[in-house]
Amino acid sequence: MNFIKSATSEGLADADGVTHSEYVNLYRHFAKNRELSIIITGHIAVSREGRPEARCVFLTDGEGYPYKLRTRNLRRMTEAVHSENPSVKIIAQLNHGGRQIPRLQLRKNKTSICCSPIQKKVNKSAFMFKTPNQTPQSCKYIKDQFVIGAKQMEQAGFDGVQIHCAHGYLLHDCIKAGLIQFVMEILTEIKDQCKGILMIKVNADEDNLKFINEAIKIVDIVELSKGSYDNPNDMIENHRSKPAACFIEQHQELTKQKAKICVTGGFHTREEGQNVLMEQICHYVGFGRLYLMPQITKVQRLSFGRMVQALSKFMPLINAGPATIFYEEEQRRIAKKIALKNEDEMKRVGIMWWFVCMIISFFGFQRYNTIRDMTK
Ligand SMILES: Cc1cc2nc3c(=O)[nH]c(=O)nc-3n(C[C@H](O)[C@H](O)[C@H](O)COP(=O)(O)O)c2cc1C
């Protein structure tokens, strides 16, 4: 079936950006699901400075200890996926956080530079993020980081990469600021230097049409979705509609190109995804939350839905933060083989999590995962 498990950050790397056995467990779990034709990893930062969150995988250059261990452990994951299901493709999502790196995380990233071509505060969530002070033109090395990252992922056995150009991160800002050529250079170099599948994730917005029309000539799959911290009300908890599917219905000409189109966001059941495929609106449907709850067949607003909606009028970030942390934790439960058993359990844990997550997001507290079980 043309279903994709969209990128969902799993927070399973240690402080060196190295993954361990839980990461392998999680992706083996996804590979067992025969509905999926493509699995995309949670975002992998192309550098330490580009990490949007503490526990995501990040890439480093050179031949030293973290590099070798990281590549070997990622390879263990891709091998596990391929041996579990030889027909599924495993894709690494590469990202740079740009201005969407929380202040506290910037310090952990050992930099104070928050780079983006968009010189304005992140709307309504400015307390969490710094005003950008460097543009990608002046740090051209970012382009090389993406290209080197893509090559490293090839060495680690991935079937390809997805370049994250959505959700308010650095490359999304570049597109918004008219630096389409900069992003196109990254894609062209990766296409020239790597053999695997090349995907992009981009927001389904009219403003991005020019970029989508350019990129579609080069890449293999364009994934359309919605949301950014500029507009948290567009993010996951509010996805009652299917914004990317509506967008592609209005731009059917995009599906006539060589590249395939995937729409992601707001599909609460498999049937909803199947209907869109049967109507031939697009080639693939992407799911985020549905595959993070193995025993649950329908994505529902978490039990604290109404309260969140009321509070989000004053503090839009709570529409995104706690829900994302809740689902991220679900992935860690799958990785530890203690996933929630049914919907009642999910609701109970959901409300508890919401309170915990409110506190975690408020203080920007992020703990490191220090598992070291694959170091030998
Ligand atoms: C826990 C969690 C983590 C996510 N992490 C990423 C990510 O790393 N990269 C990305 O492009 N999107 C990420 N997303 C967004 C999803 O890929 C997807 O676009 C969004 O959840 C909407 O799809 P859904 O309605 O099927 O959940 C994340 C979503 C969730 C719930």
Describe the structure.
GO terms for molecular function: FMN binding; oxidoreductase activity. By secondary structure, the protein is of the alpha/beta class. The chain is 38% helix and 12% strand. The protein has twelve helices and nine strands. The chain has helices spanning 21-32, 65-84, 103-108, 141-155, 170-176, 180-193, 209-215, 243-250, 270-278, 305-312, 321-335, 343-363, and strands spanning 3-5, 36-40, 44-45, 89-95, 160-165, 197-203, 221-225, 260-264, 284-287. It has an eight-stranded parallel beta barrel with strand order 1-2-4-5-6-7-8-9, surrounded by seven helices. The longest helix has 21 residues, at 343-363. It is globular, with a radius of gyration of 19 Å. Mean pLDDT is 85; it is low at 364-373. The protein binds flavin mononucleotide (FMN). Flavin mononucleotide binds next to helix 11.
Structural descriptors:
376 residues, alpha/beta, TIM Barrel, eight-stranded parallel β-barrel, 12 helices, globular, binds flavin mononucleotide, transmembrane, membrane, NADH_flavin_oxidoreductase, oxidoreductase activity, oxidoreductase
Tell me the overall shape: globular
Spatial ordering of strands, largest sheet: 1-2-4-5-6-7-8-9
Rg from Cα: 19 Å
The poorly predicted ranges are 364-373
For the record, the CATH architecture stands as Alpha-Beta Barrel
Quaternary state reads single chain
Q: What is the CATH homology-level superfamily?
A: Aldolase class I
Helix proportion range: 25-40%
Main β-sheet description: 8 strands, parallel, barrel
The count of helical stretches stands at: 12
Q: Give the mean pLDDT.
A: 85
According to CATH, the fold-level topology is TIM Barrel
Overall strand count: 9
Domain NADH:flavin oxidoreductase/NADH oxidase N-terminal: 26-176
Keywords: Flavoprotein, Membrane, Oxidoreductase, Transmembrane, Transmembrane helix
GO molecular function: FMN binding; oxidoreductase activity
Transmembrane segments: 351-368
